[in-house]
Write a structure and sequence with these properties.
alpha/beta, Rossmann fold, six-stranded mixed β-sheet, four-stranded antiparallel β-sheet, 9 helices, binds adenosine-5'-triphosphate, ABC_transporter-like_CS, ATP-binding, transport, ATP hydrolysis activity
């Protein structure tokens, strides 16, 4: 197996504190891996290193065999590594459909010209509508983005992330801040994307039932260090994981 994404000795130190320490990580293509670990374990920092928001103090990151360690977040996004929070450019006064269409348009690199490109415009809109169906938001196509509930906004972000056609999706706690009633819909959306089979997905999530439901494998970080990586059943039975992570040190799993 050639990993689509790989880190070697990935390390970052803030002042005297090493938030991610010598992590060797391999992500198979079209695989779903969750990253778990107690608060402060380094999960989000690890994502920031993968997406380019942070530059490592040591170590390297490879995408499809190419060293991307020094590339900017935009360059990485162009190569196919997408992260949902980058999409802060939701226009609150545009409709849901218009927002997704703009993301599709940006990806297609088309400058919309009202008179000459109406056919292309229709195709963009069709694609945007398909994406809204994927994230189960088609019923809200004409709603203004600012009027969406929190969970619906997260779905819109995911639709816009999908519009970028990223091969690798980095999902950092997609259900954070959601009400309990909103969680199953997001879970269904992620299941649907997984079932389509063409994405490589890395999820950071505290909700263990969601991790167990979705993941092919789990990586565990603890105090910035790699603790374990393997199939879900192996990780859940691993003594080292249980003692470090499940054995009372961590009580945030819900
Ligand atoms: N920019 C920064 N400057 C200084 N310290 C930082 C910075 N970013 C993260 N840290 C520290 O690095 C450690 C790891 O933080 P990180 O947010 O990656 O953990 P996490 O596993 O995502 O936690 P949580 O589950 O609470 O989101 C923490 O001790 C945090 O305070």
């Amino acid at each position: 197996m050639v990993p689509i994404l790989e880190t070697k000795g990935l390390t970052i130190t803030f002042g005297g504190h090493t938030a991610v320490s010598d992590v060797h990580f391999q992500m198979p293509p079209h695989h779903f891996k969750s990253i778990i670990g107690p608060n402060g374990a380094g999960k989000t920092t690890f994502f920031n290193l993968l997406s380019g928001q942070l530059k490592p103090s040591a170590g390297t990151i490879h995408y499809k065999g190419k060293d991307i360690t020094r590339l900017s977040p935009t360059e990485r996004a162009r190569l196919g590594i997408g992260r949902s929070f980058q999409l802060t450019n939701v226009f609150p006064n545009l409709t849901v459909l218009e927002n997704v269409r703009l993301a599709v348009q940006a990806q297609a690199g088309i400058r919309y010209n009202m008179f000459s490109h109406f056919r292309k415009f229709n195709r963009l809109e069709e694609r945007a509508y398909e994406l809204l169906q994927t994230v189960l938001l088609n019923g809200k196509a004409e709603a203004l983005a600012k009027n969406l509930a929190h969970g619906e906004k997260r779905k819109l972000e995911i639709a816009m992330l999908l519009a970028l056609q990223s091969e690798v999706l980095l999902l950092d706690e997609p259900t954070a801040g959601m009400s309990l009633e909103e969680v199953p819909a997001i879970l269904e959306v992620i299941h649907k994307i997984k079932q389509q089979g063409n994405k490589t997905i890395i999820l950071i999530e505290h909700k263990m039932d969601m991790v167990l439901d979705l993941s092919d494998s789990i990586m565990v970080l603890f105090n910035g260090k790699f603790l374990a990586d393997g199939p879900v059943a192996d990780i859940m039975q691993s003594e080292i994981v249980q003692s470090a992570y499940l054995g009372g040190l961590y009580d945030d799993a819900s």
